[in-house]
Amino acid sequence: MDTKQASLRVFIQVWDSETGGVAWEGSGELNFAYESAAENPAPFEKAATLAARRMYQELSGAKAR
């Protein structure tokens, strides 16, 4: 058995093109791990997708400043 893991930290800002101010910003951190008997790496794409989905949910529910 082997533990596969990935860590990812993301920071995103959305800028208002008319005012030049920050309309929304968010950050997320994800630690992903699983036990494996095979030789498969912890996929970066899966970790990045999970973090992006969480941030998208936050963005879609956020109100502009």
Task: Present the secondary structure layout.
Layout: E1 2-15, E2 22-36, H1 44-61
Antiparallel strand pairs: 1-2
Give Rg in angstroms.
16 Å
Q: Structural class, judged by helices and strands?
A: alpha+beta
- How many β-strand runs? 2
Order of helices and strands: EEH
Task: Explain how this protein is built.
Helices cover 28% and strands 45% of the residues. The protein is α+β, with helices and mostly antiparallel strands. Strands 1-2 form a two-stranded antiparallel ribbon. It is rod-shaped and about 55 Å long. It starts with a strand and ends with a helix.
Describe the structure in brief.
By secondary structure, this protein is α+β, with helices and mostly antiparallel strands.
Tags for this model:
single chain; 65 residues; alpha+beta; 2 strands; 28% helix; 45% strand; rod-shaped
